[in-house]
Write a structure and sequence with these properties.
Layout: E1 9-13, H1 18-29, E2 33-38, H2 41-47, E3 58-61, H3 67-81, E4 86-89, H4 106-133, E5 138-143, H5 156-175, E6 181-188, H6 198-201, H7 204-210, H8 222-233, H9 235-238, E7 245-248, H10 252-255, E8 259-260, E9 266-267
Parallel strand pairs: 1-2, 1-4, 2-3, 4-5, 5-6, 6-7
Antiparallel strand pairs: 8-9
The site of nicotinamide-adenine-dinucleotide (NAD) has 28 residues, from helix 1 and strand 2.
């Protein structure tokens, strides 16, 4: 089995940090030429010439939500490499809209839409002709969230758009199958990144307790998702896989609300001051 990406060109949106950056580095390590679209000018400067993303990489300052930026980005990739094989639609953000739906306003809905769904249309639409051009097929990888697979009361609208990414992935997988372009999705559980800085969010003394809701007993690392992206990108690994979703979540989707008690028993009982169920372990 040839787990290499030599000769392939990959574009990662939001590749300047977190999950996107880990994916870009993994692809470069496997021999791909990597293009990164990053909105933050300081990150763009820091990335240019970074050996971890390869000497022949292309780092473009672009807002994945803006049609003109995206058109320029695809133009530059075509000019430099003449091809595109892998697209990772990684941009997404909860925008800290942690409140109930009735407290949200239309501007917040629009911003969450732009950040979590609309740009997938803009970027993918622009990229398809260049992926098709080579006639060699390709791989599109959409980064969604575990919140796209359950009810998420803290930010219903973010969750709604992440659910929509599943529909987009499935429909597009069928639509592009005649071009041998595979389309799949990665759904991360809570992962330590700039937008989810776990050390700031959870006091160290509660970290172990918080991680007990995850069967594999730890939050995600960007590299966990890079592994999944490599699987979807390398034809020898996933040439017969399209339209699917991979939950990279330490098993939390499987646990579906069950969490481990300090004594190691699993429960989905509510946290109350005293035991409500007579059996002890549910
Ligand atoms: N971190 C988590 O816990 C978690 C959980 C579930 C899903 N996700 C999803 O994973 C993806 C990546 O999240 P992350 O935590 O790595 O993010 P991050 O904030 O750490 O990194 C995102 C990068 O994208 C850049 N960026 C932001 N907006 C952009 C735009 N419009 N155009 C181009 N670049 C832009 C940022 O500057 C940053 O470098 C998102 O889609 C997010 O919804 C993350």
């Amino acid at each position: 089995m040839d787990i290499r990406l030599d000769g392939k060109v990959a574009l990662v949106t939001g590749g300047g940090a977190g999950i996107g950056r880990a994916i870009a580095e993994a692809f470069a390590e496997l021999g791909a030429k990597v293009a990164i679209a990053e909105i933050d000018g300081e990150k763009v400067e820091a990335l240019r010439g970074d050996p971890k993303i390869g000497a022949d990489s292309l780092v473009i300052q672009a807002d994945a939500r803006k049609t003109e930026d995206v058109a320029q980005m695809i133009f530059e990739i075509d000019r430099k490499y003449g091809r595109l094989d892998i697209l990772v639609n990684n941009v997404g953000h909860h925008l800290s809209c942690f409140k109930s739906l009735d407290m949200m306003d239309e501007a917040e809905w629009d911003a969450l839409y732009d950040y979590n769904l609309r740009h997938l249309f803009v970027v993918t639409k622009a990229a398809i002709p260049l992926i098709r051009k080579g006639g060699r097929g390709g791989s599109i990888i959409n980064i969604s969230s575990n919140e796209g697979f359950r009810g998420y009361p803290s930010n219903v609208v973010y969750s709604a758009f992440k659910h929509a990414v599943t529909g987009l992935t499935k429909g597009l997988a069928v639509d592009l199958s005649s071009d041998a372009i595979r389309v799949n999705l990665i759904a991360p559980e809570t992962t330590d990144t700039e937008s989810v800085p776990l050390n700031d969010l959870i006091a160290p003394e509660y970290r172990e307790a918080a991680e007990r809701c995850i069967p594999l007993r730890r939050y995600g690392r960007p590299a966990d998702h890079a592994g999944a992206a490599v699987y979807f990108a390398v034809d020898d690994l996933s040439s017969w896989v399209t339209g699917t979703s991979m939950l990279v979540d330490g098993g939390s989707g499987a646990a579906a609300g069950f969490y481990s008690l300090p004594n190691g028993h699993w429960t989905n009982a509510p946290v109350v001051e005293r035991e409500v169920f007579n059996s002890g372990n549910i």
